[in-house]
Amino acid sequence: MMGKRTIVLSVADGMGGQASGEIAAQTAIDTVKEYCENVFPKLKSITPSVLKQNINQLYQGANRKIREISDKDERNQGLGTTLVIALVIGDKYIVSNVGDSRCYYNNQEEVWQITEDHSEVAEEVRRGTMTEEAAKKSPFRSALYRSLGEEGEVEVDFFPKGDKFSIIDQPCALLICSDGLSNSVNEGDIYENIVGTSDIKKACNNLVSLAYSKGSDDNITVAMAEFGTIKRAKNKIKLLPPPEILARKYAKSKKLDTGLTAKLKIIAAGLTIILISSVGFLLYKIKTSDFTFHNLFQIKKADKYVISQDEKNKKLEEEKEFPSEQKIEEALQEEEIAKAERTEQKGASVEYDPLFKIIPDKDSFLISELSNVCFRWTGYKDEKISYRIEIALDKSPEIRKFVYGNIKNNEIKLSDIIEAHQANLLEGKYIIELFIHKDGKKLFGGKVREIMMVNGLKNKPGEKK
Questions:
Q1: DSSP string covering 121-161, please?
Q2: Model pTM?
Q3: Is residue 257 part of a domain?
Q4: Contact between 102 and 84 (Cβ < 8 Å)
Q5: At what angle do helices 48-72 and 18-38 cross, to 10 degrees?
Q6: Which terminus of the chain has a smaller tally of CB atoms within 10 A, N or C?
Q7: What is the band of 240 on the pLDDT scale with cuts at 50, 70, 90?
Q8: Domain check: are 45 and 163 in the same one?
């Protein structure tokens, strides 16, 4: 570009299912290639502002293309991708990103992350409401609040910020990767592999192998460029088997585990049926005759195999607290009927989730009474349940507040959400979304209510404020 050596590194990590994710990621990379071949070489100026303007257009173009693909085919609805780009011109560089694919810089002495993840847990860490250790274990660590495939324009982060370049201080290296790597290895691992292998190809391969060996089950992509010659201690670290071997081994073990699980389930079901039949027959014999187990155990039959009334009562209590799937389904159906009746009476169009209540139960609140408003989860009473609740202004969805935590007493205070962000709500209609997880598995997620927030009562005609 402009007679200077130019290097472009880019990684896109798709979302929305394997097939749709690949389409989104490939569309983003194809857009990068298009700009590298047809746009960047024709630039008459390579100032930071000009480059950032063109890179931003690249992201917006990719975003529109992905959105069009999503709108044309229902099977691709919800597809999206991350995109991180490192553009190096001579001894200067600019990094840009959307999503949680990262860029790292190694200056021979240490490694640090240049980009900022656009994930919800990363935002909580930046706000100081969540620790990095808790973020790594959070079931929401892969939930993004910004990615390509969104409606309208997507906001792109640039590093460094402002009208300037970052400087390549040789010897050094730039590394970009998908979260399949960064979720499994840390900055220390990256540094050790760069300086502890003979070249960057071996460093990249060993990092991918290391991520697989640590249990990564995600797609892993790594790209690295070295500037100058980094001092290395050859054979300092032990090289792992090539990534393709570990990837096949993981896929094979996962397939084997799935197959074994299915077979074991069939065997267990068969044994359970035999066991239940045998126990049922023995109980019948015990109850209808003087049959005893003297020959085998020298014990009498009566008080060992008849379930006591206390145990029956305990079982009934457990069923009340943890209802069966059939009872839950019946309760949901009853709630749906009641909901339809409420909707018909109120003339409302808002659908409420049957397991979610708002206290007090109304649709309009004074902002001054937020401290008295809470959301109540009426599902299982379980401390292992975690939640993420979001409140978004209907006309300005970018004004969004959210909070994480474990449900205590099945209630979430609205004031906790606002205090966590040290911000006030504006007047208007808000969409409330609730995401409930247990042991990393989503039990429920989606819109649960719409509420109005107002500062006070409107003035009567002729009345002064």
A1: HHHHHHHTSS-HHHHHH-TTTT-BS--BT-SSPPP-EEES-
A2: 0.58
A3: no
A4: yes
A5: 140
A6: C
A7: confident
A8: yes
